[in-house]
Please model this.
Amino acid sequence: MHSEQPTQQDEIIPGLTREQCHAARLARDARFDGRFFTGVLSTGIYCRPICPARAPHEHNVHYFRFAAAAEQYGLRPCLRCRPELAPAQGEDLPEMVTRVLSRIERGELADSTLGMLAAEAGITERTLRRQFEQHLGASPKQVEQTRRLLLAKRLLTETHLPVTDVAFAAGFASIRRFNDAWSHAYGLSPSALRKREGVQPSQNQSEPGATLTLQLPYRPPFDVQTMLAFYRLRAIPGLERVDEQGYERRHRVGEQEGWIRIEPGVGNELRLTLRDLPPGALPDILYRVRRMWDLDADMAKIGERLGQDPRLARIQERWPGVRLPGGWDEYEVMLRAIVGQQVSVKGAITIMGRLVARTQAQFGVSALPTPAQLCTLDLDGIGMPGSRIRTLQGLARALASGALMLSTASDEQLLALPGIGPWTIAYWRLRTGQDPDAFPASDLVLQKALGGGVKLPVKEVESLSHAWQPWRAYAASWLWHAMSEQPALLISRDNEETTS
Model:
């Protein structure tokens, strides 16, 4: 089972040599958390680089990029550092693998098959398996099994849910299958783990007001307050609310409506609380929240590249940890992007609030309209020009008819919709987290930021941005933040006087 160890200089994980992994785990460096896992062959466990346990000798260590690869190797997760809490990472993976991996992480294999996911990705199931083995070191089945087991481990450790609820929330079809998989993988029963951790099952999640709270770790640095300020300014009335300590939003699962709250936790983590929502919705909610809050970004790696530009280096020094705020889902972000065309943030949010209010009045649901609802929603006097209303309804018809799927939409498909241009598409891809290199070069604020207060031509902005690939979306986020908070970092006094 054990293969020959690479040399110290070999790159055993994209961007990391064995020597770097060794140094990172000895230093317990949180910036490397989730970038690799340490398999300890003498004990049969695998750990995060921040594990507080005594560091094993290097000759007993094998490094893995993904937890699923460690489990396929026959190792079990450490009970002290809890690998299930490590930030995820999927950089440098082929686009097809990234897309299918995201769907697995979202829990879609619980209601679908691998063949269906492969077909929707435009490849055969055999090719998908081969790509996963090559790039992840584990089969799709092992990735899904690891996802279920690690989520179950989190729920057993962090919540008081009954074991049956834990099993179904993690994606297992029956309690028997869960118990079999758990015992085979970890060699102890779920109740034994709970006894070790001092957790007593008690909560019935179906009771009104029932809550679940989970930790959401991230790699530092992370400017949480800047993220909260971003969402506070853009909170949709009737759907979202942001106070000094956290963000909340309504969420509907079937006929059940509840609330989700995100707030700072202890150390390098956020705290997620679900109220009145079924545990089975957890995989999808965790996926959405991690993407929305950009929890899996490797800011050290991104900052190393962007910091080579003096302008971005000044921003990084002033606000370390500024990330890329995202949206709840592709559809909501597209609505925001269309409504926000050529209007202020405040004006756009006012209109988004009216969409929620009119959906409530017409359909009895306090939410943004679904595509089908938007096709018939009364938009008279909502505060948008007729051309923008036609753009919204054109999008709604394309989505409701199945002619367009935002999760797989190409730029060409989106450009074919009236009223959607390059800026809208780039902004949408940036805010959905679909493309960390998306860059709306025609954005007026970016043009002025890069021109020192003077509007640069789009071609020049595009040319300047090439040096930041593949992280141009982060560069845009940093530039927008600086222009909002302290434009003097980018705009010279001479240019301010000339353009005032």
User: Anything to note?
Assistant: The chain is about 45% helix and 10% strand. The chain has four domains: 11-83, 95-197, 211-277+290-296, 327-432. The mean pLDDT is 90.
